[in-house]
Amino acid sequence: MSELPACPQCASAYAYEDRNLLVCPECGHEWSASGEAAVQDEKVIRDANGNPLADGDTVTVIKDLKVKGSSLVVKVGTRVKNIRLVDGDHDIDCKIDGIGPMKLKSEFVRKA
Description:
Blueprint: E1 16-18, E2 21-23, E3 30-32, E4 59-61, E5 65-66, E6 73-74, E7 79-80, E8 84-85, E9 92-96, E10 100-104, E11 109-111
Antiparallel strand pairs: 1-2, 2-3, 4-7, 4-11, 5-6, 8-9, 9-10
């Protein structure tokens, strides 16, 4: 039986093999079993025009957006400053003046 390497994230000795990956049951980290350093593919979030977005950018809303659960509407042309990118369906976390904190989809904004 071959000795499996410890987890590179938490140094746990309980790693196990799952197809071509090694998995740590303690922290959930997965890495390549081939011994090569695996390069993590970061998901690039792009606006409606295809420009890459980053944390702290300012964006402009390109479509009237109804705020779910209220009668408020985010109007076309609303500038949103200091966005934060998050994982999920709504990938922009922001605070809009007059409305408050909310999440937006990147397909409805363009980089300002």
